[in-house]
Amino acid sequence: MALLITDACINCDICEPACPNGAIAPGTTVYEITPALCTECVGHYDTPQCQNVCPVHCIIKDPEHEETQPQLLARYQLITASR
């Protein structure tokens, strides 16, 4: 499942550089996560780094993008293969 940044985001800029896949970018009102690039840090770390650094804990699992660990790992492999 990809992650989602809620409206509680304070635009502190901490999550964007923490994402190893470059899935986080400034949005219209709050930062946004591109689901096609989000692996919840599977393949990189044991836990999502954006959630670890978020001071207001506004990053949640996106209920509209449910995925299994194998699916997230496959996305990680696709993303890193092109680098």
Order of helices and strands: EHEEHEH
Helix content: 25-40%
Report the structural category. Answer: alpha+beta
Count of helical stretches: 3
Which overall shape is indicated by the principal axes computed on the Cα atoms?
Answer: globular
Q: CA-to-CA gap between the ends? A: 23 Å
Task: Looking at this protein, list some descriptive labels.
27% helix, 14% strand, alpha+beta, 83 residues, 3 helices, two-stranded antiparallel ribbon, two-stranded antiparallel sheet
Can you put this structure into words, describing what you see?
The chain has about 80 residues and is of the alpha+beta class. About 25% of the residues lie in helices and about 15% in strands. The chain is built from 3 helices and 4 strands, in the order E-H-E-E-H-E-H. The protein has a two-stranded antiparallel ribbon. The protein has a two-stranded antiparallel ribbon with strand order 2-3. A hairpin with a 4-residue loop joins strand 2 (about 25) and strand 3. The longest helix has 13 residues, at about 70-80. It is globular and about 30 Å long. The two termini are about 25 Å apart.
